[in-house]
Specification:
The complex is a heterodimer of chains A (337) and B (220).
Chain A (H helix, E strand, L loop, with lengths): L3 E12 L2 E13 L4 E5 L6 H8 L7 E6 L2 E2 L5 H9 L1 E5 L10 H11 L4 H14 L15 H13 L5 E5 L7 H18 L2 E6 L2 H7 L2 E6 L2 E7 H6 L4 H8 L8 H4 L3 E7 L8 H9 L4 E10 L2 E10 L3 H13 L3 E5 L4
Chain B lengths: L3 H39 L8 H16 L2 H7 L1 H8 L5 H25 L3 H9 L4 H12 L1 H21 L7 H12 L3 H29 L5
């Protein structure tokens, strides 16, 4: 069995006499050592889903297995022990404001019953792991966002968990800090072999660090698979929406009224070849580049482009087949994307 | 007029006032702190919501707090006599003071604990902390500034109430103010006792504020 196994999970909330279904019959397997992304727009239910993994939200229906153990069958004591094997970090860090960085890291150890002196020794090691040794006496209010998240990560690692849940852990951070936190997470995954589950609304986070991804839309799991596969050929509207990031969409798109728009994804080999320039030379007709971007997908640089094609239907088909011949992934882009 | 006798009387008054205030604050907290924690834990959205327990606690709290202190002082005379053996004097006054302060303190504690960020509690839960651990290692630690400001306000309140108990022979500076200033028209003695009460209040408030700022690490 997988490290984390979610079976037919449904969660309903009672809000002012109305029943709201936050999660609808979700089944998901997360393998040991994975960095698994769960992505969705805000309100999609992804936070509820991650909270179900350690039962901060108890499911209305369905089961959660950690290492083959159904969480619902555990006694209170066993359950708390199990929880301590699942670390968690949050968007707002949730550090104890009245404790120093070091004491924050000692906190889960003291809860587990470790002696204070031992806890401090362990906490110092962890602070070194997250490169914050010089801040051991600082209080959270004296730390930057990135430093707070590092302390939170050290705290989450204190009890030697097998799983680390990250709930929008980089959403409150600037791009550079996000980058450094993500590379720290990758390092933790590689060195400590901890399974990491990342909840986010940022596709860039998923493409940068995750191997597998699940897309949640309106409480329903709409798409899942390898990140590369989802990135190359998104099947659902939710996936496309997240991938194209509507807000930064190229605005003159509506004005241009291109006859046909296609999205092409470059793989590593095609990145060396001047594909578009060759295309224009070959067909002696201009194509319109509506959007171009390079992303880091699973550690590899992947380019994507949205092209507006000329009006002639035959020419369109020829261009598309020529691009496909070069091993590029070509998908049609609808008007509303 | 301020002869050795009067001075000695005022000094005893100061001693009695401090005795009543501090001892009643102590016992008030001995009852009010657990009471407040129970209210906070059992309220809806608390660590362990329980409508019945919260309802009863809430009701007792409101009832006692809505009885004017002077009335409570008189109502409790039989109870005070039962516990202390007499119904007048400083020690006897402590009984109604504690009864009056405990529900007030419970509210102060309940509100202070409410201020602790729900996210921090959730984080502690995720680490496998039990409710008891969350109360003692998270709530009471994180809310300590509010708790301490609350304690300062409560001590000030009890200082005022201890003076009020002077009307029924409770001892302390309030007693002196009533006996000399009201019954004997010795305004000067009354003014001195009032000034002393103001001074003690200021000292308590100052120590409280300074200490609260000192233990707060949230902003700096």
């Amino acid at each position: 069995m997988s490290e984390i196994e979610i079976r037919n999970l449904t969660k309903k909330f009672e809000v002012k006499g109305m029943t709201v279904t936050a999660l609808d019959n979700i089944s998901l397997s997360i393998e040991k050592g994975d960095i698994f992304g769960i992505i969705g727009m805000s309100g999609a239910g992804k936070s509820t889903l991650v909270r179900s993994i350690n039962f901060l939200e108890k499911p209305t229906d369905g089961q959660v297995f950690i290492d083959g153990t159904d969480l619902a069958t555990l006694t209170e004591k066993e359950f708390r022990k199990k929880r301590s094997e699942i670390g968690m970090i949050f968007q707002n860090f949730n550090l104890l404001e009245q404790k120093t960085a070091l004491d924050n890291i000692c906190f889960p150890l003291e809860i587990a019953g470790m002696r204070r002196r031992e806890a401090r020794k362990k906490a110092r090691e962890l602070l070194a792991t997250v490169n914050l040794s010089e801040k051991e006496k600082s209080y959270p209010s004296q730390l930057s966002g990135g430093q707070k998240q590092r302390v939170a990560i050290a705290r989450a690692l204190a009890t030697g968990p097998k799983i680390l849940l990250c709930d929008e852990a980089t959403s409150a951070l600037d791009p550079q800090t996000t980058e450094s936190i993500l590379s720290l997470l990758r390092e933790i995954n590689e060195k400590l072999h901890i399974t990491i589950v990342i909840i986010t609304h940022q596709m860039s986070v998923v493409t940068q660090i995750c191997k597998k991804v699940a897309i949640i839309d309106n409480g329903v799991l709409v798409e899942q698979g390898d990140v590369e596969q989802v990135f190359e050929a998104p099947k659902t509207d939710a996936a496309k929406e997240l991938l194209f990031d509507k807000k930064v969409r190229y605005s003159p798109l509506d004005i241009l009224h291109e006859a046909r728009k296609i999205r092409i994804v470059f793989n590593e080999n095609s990145s060396y070849e001047p594909v578009i320039a060759n295309l224009i030379l070959k067909f002696q007709t201009p194509v319109n580049i509506l959007k171009a971007d390079t992303r880091n997908v699973g550690g590899r640089a992947r380019g994507e482009m949205i092209l507006g094609l000329p009006e002639s239907q035959t020419l369109q088909e020829e261009i598309i087949s020529s691009l496909k011949e070069r091993g590029l992934t070509v998908t049609e882009v609808e008007e509303d994307v | 007029m301020f002869d050795a006798k009067v001075v000695a009387m005022i000094l005893t008054g100061i001693k009695d006032t401090l005795y009543m205030t501090l001892v009643s604050t102590f016992f008030g907290y001995a009852i009010g702190l657990p009471f407040g924690i129970i209210l906070n834990v059992t309220r809806s959205g608390g660590l362990h919501p329980n409508k019945v327990i919260y309802g009863i606690g809430d009701f007792i709290c409101n009832i006692v707090r809505s009885i004017p202190f002077l009335i409570l002082l008189i109502l409790l005379i039989p109870f005070t006599r039962l516990i202390v053996g007499q119904s007048y004097g400083s020690t006897a006054t402590i009984v109604p003071l504690v009864i009056c302060a405990a529900p007030y303190i419970a509210r102060v504690v309940e509100t202070a604990l409410n201020e602790v960020d729900a996210g921090v509690i959730e984080a502690a839960r995720a680490m496998g902390a039990s409710n008891l651990q969350i109360v003692f290692k998270v709530l009471l630690v994180e809310a300590r500034v509010s708790l301490f400001s609350g304690a300062t306000i409560t001590t000030g309140l009890l200082l005022g109430y201890s003076a009020m108990s002077g009307t029924v022979g409770g001892g302390g500076l309030g007693d002196i103010a009533v006996r000399y200033g009201y019954y004997r028209w010795q305004t000067d003695i009354m003014i001195v006792t009032v000034l002393l009460l103001i001074l003690i209040f200021q000292i308590i408030q100052n120590i409280g504020t300074r200490f609260s700022t000192h233990i707060d690490h949230r902003k700096r």
